[in-house]
Give the backbone structure.
Amino acid sequence: MNISRKWLSDYVALNCDDAALCEKLTMSGIEVEAVEAGSKVPEGVVAAKILERGKHPDSDHLSVCKVFNGKEELQIVCGAPNCDAGRIVPLATIGTVFCTPEGEFRIKRSKLRGVESFGMMCSASELGIGEDNSGLLILPEDTVPGTPLAALYPGDTKIEVEVTPNRPDWLSMYGIARDVACLLDEEAHLPEIRIPECTIPAPGLVTVEDPDLCPRYIGRIIRNVKIGPSPAWMVERLESIGLRSINNVVDVTNFVMMELGQPLHVFDLDKLEGKRVVARRAKAGESIITLDGKKLDLTSDNLVIADAAKPMALAGIMGGEYSGVSDSTVNVLLESACFKSSNIRTSSRKLGISSDSSYRFERGVDYEMTPVAAMRAAQLILATAGGELASEAVDVAAGREPDAVICCRFDRIRSLIGTQVSNERIVEILKKLHLGVDKITAEKCEVTSRSFRRDVSREADLAEEVARINGLGQIPEVPVSGKCAMSIAEDTYYRLATLRDFAVRLGFCECVHYTIVGTASALTDGRFEAKDLVTLSNPLSADASVLRCSLFGGMMGAVERNVARGNRDLRLFELGKVFCATSGKFPEERYELMLLLSGRRHPELYSAATAENFDFYDLKGAVESLMELCGVSTRRYRMVKLENDRRFRSGRAAALEIDGKRAGALGEIAADLSAKWRNNAPVFTAQIEAAALWNIMGREKIEYKDLAQFPGTTRDVAFIAPESLEHGAITAFIAKCKPANLESVRLFDIFVDDALKKSGRKSMAYTLTFRHRERTLKDAEVNTTMDQLRAKLAAELKVELR
C-alpha cells in the first residue's frame, strides 16, 4: 500500500516530519517498508504569463515568446507546441539549477538559432512533478505571475507500508488517517460530501439473486456525462501513489477506492441489455472476457454482475471488456457493493486473475462505507464529468453481522500490556479509534466494534489497540522467568539440529532442496507410484506440482548438476520433510535422512591413493558411525540383504533394521538412474527414517568403565560355514553362549575358492579377546572356555571347524 503524505494530509493534520511519521507508523503496527521523497521544484522557477508568440526566423518548430515573470518582460525561445499567448506557465529564470542523473544543469542566457533566450519555460516532466513531457505545464488562469512554483507544487513523500491481512481498513488513505490521528493527537475527518437530491425511482435497476455472496449492492444512474481527461489535482493524487490516469470517470473510481477503501465499478448503461444489473452465480457454460482481454470460463462458484442476458463483470474482481466506460459513453450506472470475502478469494485463485479491487474484497470491505463511497463517487463524477443524477441510489441490502460488544476491564488491559495506563487514557484511545465506548465506570467500560474493525472481537484485541497507540516503547522491560516443562530431547528442532550435526561430524555436506517438486522427480524413488503423491490443487508449474515423497529425486538432481559441472567427489546429506498420500505405506508427513557418497575416497592425497573410489563399505561404515552417535547399540540394529528394490543395483544393497523393524536402506544406485551422467564412479546412498533414530537418541543409558589394568589374551577360531550364515548371526550366537571373560569378537577373514563356492560354503575366521578386570588370565582357563565355545559352534551352527 502506497501512501502520499500530501494526500494523507487532506484527512488529518500532520504535525511531524517524514522520519517521525514513519517511526510512529511502524511502532503502531503499520510497518514502513520504503520511503521515496518526491522531487522539489528548483528555486528560481516562477509562474509567468505568455504575452506574445511569434515564429522563429530560422526554425519551423521553435517559437519566440515574450513573457512576464511578475517583474519584467523577457524573451524566451521555446519548442513546445502549446506556448500560446495568454497562458500561465512555469519559467526557469537565469541561474536556476536543475539536478539531473547526469549532474547539475544551470539555466543561463543563450542563443538558439541566433535568437537570444533569457530562461526556459518548462513541462511537468522537466520540473519532476509529473510524467507529461508533450508540452508546457499549463497553470491555472488565476495564478499570479512571479509566484514561485515551489509554493504551488510543494514536494510530496511516498511511503510504502506493509498491511497485515487482518487490517483491510489500512488499505485506504482515510483508514490510515484514523490511526495517524490517534498517534499525533489530532482528529481525522472525511471530506464533505454533497450531491443534488434525486428521488427518481428506478424499479428493477438492481437485483441480487444470491444475498449470501452479495450482502449489499448500491446502483445509481448518472446521465449525460462527458468522458475526458481528469483535472490536474486528481491526476496528481493518483500519480503520487503510482496509479496511471485513464479518464475522468474511471479515475474517480480509483480515487475513491484509494481514499475510502471501497472498490467501485462504472458500467456503460447503454451497453446493458434491459438497462439493469443482476448479481448472481454464473451459469454452466458461461464465460466472460475481462478488461485485460482474458477469456474466463465460469462455474457456479463464481459471482457475476450480469445484465438481462449475460455476465458483464466478474464481481469484485474485474469488469467485462464490453461493459466499461469508453470515449463514447454518455450514461453510466455506478456500482458500490459488498461481496463475500471467501468467494472473491476462491474465484480469484481458481481463475488466476486479481486486481486492486479483489485484493480489498478478499480481506473484507467496510459494509457501512458502501453508501458513503457511492455518494462520494457521484459527487466527483458530477464535478469532473458533468451530467446529472437520473435515479435515486438503489440500495439492496441483506444486512450484516452485529457489531461485537466487549467488556473492557481497565485492570485487565493494564495487566495484558504490562504497563500503567490511566482509565481516561484507555477510553480516549478507544474513542479516537472510532470504536463505540459506553457505560464507563471506575472499573470497566463497554466497547462496541465497528464494521471497519471486524478484527476487534475480544478484550485482548482492545489491549493490543491501547498498547500500540499508547506506544510500545512505553512497555517496561521485565526480566523473563521460565520453567522447564519438558526435556530438550523432546524438542523437534533440537533433534533435527542434532542429527544434522552428526552428519556434518561424519564429513558430509548438507543439501537443501525444495519440498514442492515435479512428478518425474518424485517418482525417481521406485518405491512410490503416482497414487502415493500429494498433489497441489493450484500448482505454479508442472515442475512444482506435488510434495516430494522422499529425498531421493532431489539428491539425484544434485548429483547430476555437480557431475555436469565437474564436481565428482561428493559427500552429501539432506534431512527434511517428505509426504505420502497412501497411509498404509508411510505416514502422511515424516522426516527422512539421506546420505550420499561418490567419487574419490581421498581426493586430498596424491599418487595411487587418489585412484581409490568410495565403495559400499564406506557407506556402511558411515551408517554404523551414525548409529553409534545416535546411541543405537550394535545389538539393536542389523543390515540384511535387500533384493528387488529399483533404487539400487541388484546384490549391492542392504536393508537397515532397528529393533527388528525396517528403518531404511543403503546401497549403490541402479545403473539406469546414472546412465546419462558423465561419471565413472559409482554412487552410494542411504535413506533412513529419522523417527527411527529419534526414538532411540538419548534414551539408551551410557555406561562408562575404568580402563583395564590387566592384559588381555586372544584366541582365533576358523571354520567352514554355509554361505547363508551371516556374520550377525554368528556374533549373536557367541554372545548368547556367554563365554567367561570374553571382551570382543572381530571377523578378520572371509575366504571363498572355487571348491567352497561350488558347495555353497565359505571360510570364516574370528579373533576373540579375553580379559579379566581384576587379574591376569591363565592360558588353561582361556583354553577351556575356547574349547567349550568351539564345541557349541560345531554342534549348533553346524560349522566345520578348522
